[in-house]
Amino acid sequence: MQAEQVRHVLVVGAGLGGLRTVEALRSNGYDGRISLVGAEEHLPYDRPPLSKQLLAGTWDADRVALRAADAYDDLGVRAYLGTRATGWQPGRVELDDGATLHADAVVVATGVVARRLPDQPDTVHTLRTLDDSLALRAALDTASSLTIVGAGFVGAEVASNARDRGIDVTVLEALPVPFARALGEDLGGLCARLLVESGARLRTGVGIDGFDDSGALLLADGDRVTADVTLVGIGGEPRLDWLSGSGIDVTRGLVCDASGRVDGADGLWAVGDVAAWWDDVLGRPTRREHWTNTVEQAAAVGAAIAGGEPPAPTVPYFWSDQFGLKVQLFGRPEPATRHVTLHGDGLDGGPVKGTVVGLLRDDTLVAVAGFGAARRVARYRALVGSGATIGEVEEMAATLA
Ligand SMILES: Cc1cc2nc3c(=O)[nH]c(=O)nc-3n(C[C@H](O)[C@H](O)[C@H](O)COP(=O)(O)OP(=O)(O)OC[C@H]3O[C@@H](n4cnc5c(N)ncnc54)[C@H](O)[C@@H]3O)c2cc1C
């Protein structure tokens, strides 16, 4: 359908991707009807502070709101909050209140749901929503011990937060080295050091058998682990249950072309954590659960539906704030075959802070990771984007030394 024929855009998922899609539609001149359907009662809010400032208590809940309530009137969007989409057919979406909304374009921004362990008791926490964060914060307020299953970014940030409160922290990780799949063993080792140097206990290669009646964790090696608070932070599953009857393949997230059109589904688009956009560099659909990726995809889809100019391609980016420093990664680490230290000596046993590492495929830069070195890392962004050679990278390192 041509942009000028689109008269109603329906965005499913009132989070970061949903809101940014609405804003991009308007900023690209779309002046038709927009509806925003969100399962939560809250207006769109930001998730990174849920494991950082909100959990620490330095921010109140109202500070995570992405926009003030009156901004939605200014955007001319009708929000259906506390309402879940339950089905899609070309041109229409069914809602859990029995209503059906007809639309010329539907954008899916339903994010992920926190993965749980089998038979996980309700007393065990997960962290994905504002309500999850407030519940965990209240529990930590009176806790002296915390067990975290999963040393991913959310687990590490909560561990960092709890250590700041003086709580005794144990982190259980299935892999031999945390983050090994995302960053490789050496960089994962730096993340592990941050955890351990904070005084947290890190147990790797740990299998979980389940829970006993008291809610204690039963480990595969026969151990039983108890704590005042337990958090399971083992990633998320794309929230696509509501599309299960639609005939669309949802096994790998919503597979899209390189501009966010869902494969084989007319008038359907997807952005954010739920979407597996075609990645020309990797040569496959790729799902990224990162803030910047969501914002960029929403900008692109809003522009495409409104008939605006597509934004310029960017370099993937994520950050995590933990143990007093910012961990950052620009680029695609997946094809890397080797790495070189560009600054700092964390990989040689020195302080992790200040370490910047280049990830290379043969002699081409594919990603740069930094630990407490934000200004330096940013300087490599363009080199990652252009696929710089090792010579160019070393030249930059010498300039910044
Ligand atoms: C605790 C935490 C910390 C994070 N920290 C960082 C960080 O430091 N750096 C970084 O790069 N990224 C971070 N992220 C990731 C980042 O927040 C996400 O990438 C981003 O929120 C994804 O936006 P989204 O719109 O795809 O999904 P979401 O923001 O999750 O929004 C999806 C919305 O859709 C709603 N929904 C689901 N199903 C339905 C349905 N059937 N009908 C209607 N609505 C539905 C959900 O209720 C939800 O409100 C963090 C995430 C979390 C949870």
Key terms:
alpha/beta; Enolase-like, domain 1; 3 domains; 401 residues; 25 strands; five-stranded antiparallel beta sheet; binds flavin-adenine dinucleotide; FAD/NAD(P)-binding domain; 11 helices; five-stranded parallel beta sheet
**Order of strands in the sheet with the most strands?**
3-2-1-7-18
SS-based class? alpha/beta
Distinct small-molecule ligands in the complex:
flavin-adenine dinucleotide
- Provide the domain count: 3
Percent in strands: 25-35%
Q: Could you list the spans in which at least 5 consecutive residues all have pLDDT below 50?
A: none
Question: How would the global form be characterised?
Answer: globular
Under the CATH scheme, the architecture of the largest domain is 3-Layer(bba) Sandwich
| Proportion in helices | 25-40%
Give the termini separation: 53 Å
CATH class of the largest domain: Alpha Beta
**Major sheet details:** 5 strands, parallel
- The radius of gyration over CA amounts to 22 Å
What number is the mean pLDDT?
A: 96
What is the fold named in CATH at topology level of the largest domain? FAD/NAD(P)-binding domain
How many beta strands in the DSSP annotation?
Answer: 25
**Assembly form of the protein:** single chain
Determine the number of helices (DSSP H or I, runs of at least 4 residues).
11
CATH H-level homologous superfamily name of the largest domain = FAD/NAD(P)-binding domain
Domain Reductase C-terminal: 317-391
Keywords: FAD, Flavoprotein, Oxidoreductase
Domain FAD/NAD(P)-binding: 8-298
GO molecular function: oxidoreductase activity, acting on NAD(P)H
